[in-house]
Automatic annotation (TrEMBL):
InterPro entries: Glyco_trans_2-like, Nucleotide-diphossugar_trans
Origin: domain of life: Bacteria
Domain Glycosyltransferase 2-like intervals: 3-137
CDD domains reported in the protein's UniProt record: Glyco_tranf_GTA_type (cd00761)
Coiled-coil ranges from the UniProt annotation: none
Source organism (scientific name): Flavobacterium cyanobacteriorum
Name of this chain's protein: Glycosyltransferase 2-like domain-containing protein
Length: 297
């Protein structure tokens, strides 16, 4: 009935696998849990090997890294059941009903169901604050709000998919491994006419990057988004950053925004790395970074 698929990289995923295995066993369903490390060579895989001793669970490690898109497609190809639940390694169920709450949605319809994400309520230390603030305000949304833009609000760290979805739409393995593969996946779902349902069935996102790491990953994501736009894989109006960038280019203001970004970058970083990071400033940082990238990037 259910294949739980967990890609991981240099992370101890045993607590997640054990928690999900307990929930699946308690739900009296046919299930399997497949965990694959994407070539990290991490010492943490000694702990992850313990997953193989859990009933109906398996862990294996690739010898080389194949990237975020390919690892998810690989996991889907190994799934033996009709429904697949993808979970990121750095998540944990909010409660003991994650699997139970998904069961009513495992019907005969070929679709995707997104359960949502939450962050711990306790404010982290300053160096992790930007990621926590961004996650709480931009990602941890109730299902009713997410359903207003069902495709764009899909995050791939906690979603259920009928196996036939992957017969029509897979994660694109031909793009650079610089993030936004989930954005492209959601757009391709929309183009294919595959429905995305949103429910409140959250997991906690535990892997908070420090602010320096988060900014670096955000820059990678902007470079990835610009590539998708320039290659015509995403239309300009699909995401807000794409719409804004297109307007700036049309108005001849991209170079001006780039100049301001370069001139004020240090001042912006001082705020973003501090104890009161501004998301509006972070938005300008990202559009400024996009404008500063050469056209070929």
């Amino acid at each position: 009935m259910l294949s739980v698929l967990i890609p991981t990289y240099n992370f101890n995923v045993y607590p997640l696998a054990a928690a999900i295995q307990k929930q699946c066993a308690g739900s009296n369903i046919a299930f399997e849990i497949i965990v694959i490390d994407d070539g990290s060579g991490s010492a943490l895989n000694a702990e992850n090997d313990k997953i193989n001793y859990l009933h109906r669970c398996s862990f294996s490690a690739l010898s080389a890294n194949i990237g975020r898109s390919a690892i998810r497609n690989l996991l889907a190809s190994k799934a033996n059941y009709t429904w697949m639940l993808f979970l990121d390694a750095d998540t944990l169920p909010v409660d003991e009903n994650l699997i139970k709450n998904y069961l009513p949605h495992m019907d005969n319809h070929v679709k995707v169901v997104y359960g949502g994400i939450k962050y711990k309520e306790n404010k982290p230390e300053t160096m992790q604050l930007l990621r926590w603030v961004y996650g709480n305000r931009r990602e941890a949304l109730e299902a009713e709000e997410r359903q207003q833009r069902p495709y764009l609000r899909l995050l791939t760290l906690n979603f259920l998919a009928h196996k036939d979805v992957f017969e029509k739409v897979r994660f694109n393995e031909n793009i650079p491994n610089v993030r936004h593969e989930d954005t492209l996946f959601s757009y391709d779902l929309m183009v294919a006419g595959l429905p995305v349902e949103h429910i409140d069935n959250n997991v906690y996102h535990l892997g908070l990057d420090n602010s320096i790491q988060f900014i670096r990953k955000s820059e990678e994501a902007i470079a990835g988004l610009k590539f998708l736009l320039q290659e015509g894989l995403l239309p300009d109006d699909y995401v807000g950053m794409g719409r804004l960038y297109a307007r700036l280019r049309k108005a001849g203001l991209a170079a001006t925004v780039s100049f301001i970004f370069v001139a004020t970058r240090k001042a912006m970083l001082k705020n973003l790395l501090g104890s009161h990071p501004s998301l509006k400033l972070f938005d300008f940082y990202r559009i400024g970074y996009m404008c500063s990238l050469p056209a070929s990037q």
